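in:
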């Protein structure tokens, strides 16, 4: 069930990116710049709360790459056993955030 939710979240995120009107293009560009301010870190450097959240919500997920920004938000590139992959965002307390 969690795999289905994960895939649906990825699909919804993809669809909303294309649903923006031209008035929001500048806002979207600013958001993309903010998302690109992540620096890569080793998965072992992730806070325990973040790794626990991944293990709890996505037990078959493997963290392929991890990134952190100045606000202590974490970008996680993960892959599931079934071959699907995606990106998750979490704060240092392990709460999921939308970017």
């Amino acid at each position: 069930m969690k795999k289905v939710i994960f895939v649906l979240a990825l699909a919804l995120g993809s669809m909303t990116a294309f649903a923006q009107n031209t008035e929001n293009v500048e806002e979207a560009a600013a958001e993309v710049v903010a998302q690109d301010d992540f620096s890569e870190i080793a998965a072992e450097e992730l806070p325990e709360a973040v790794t626990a959240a991944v293990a709890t919500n996505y037990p078959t997920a493997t963290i392929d790459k991890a990134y952190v920004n100045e606000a202590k938000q974490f970008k996680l590139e993960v892959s599931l056993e079934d071959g699907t992959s995606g990106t998750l965002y979490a704060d240092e307390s392990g709460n999921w955030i939308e970017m």
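note: Residues 2-91 form one domain.
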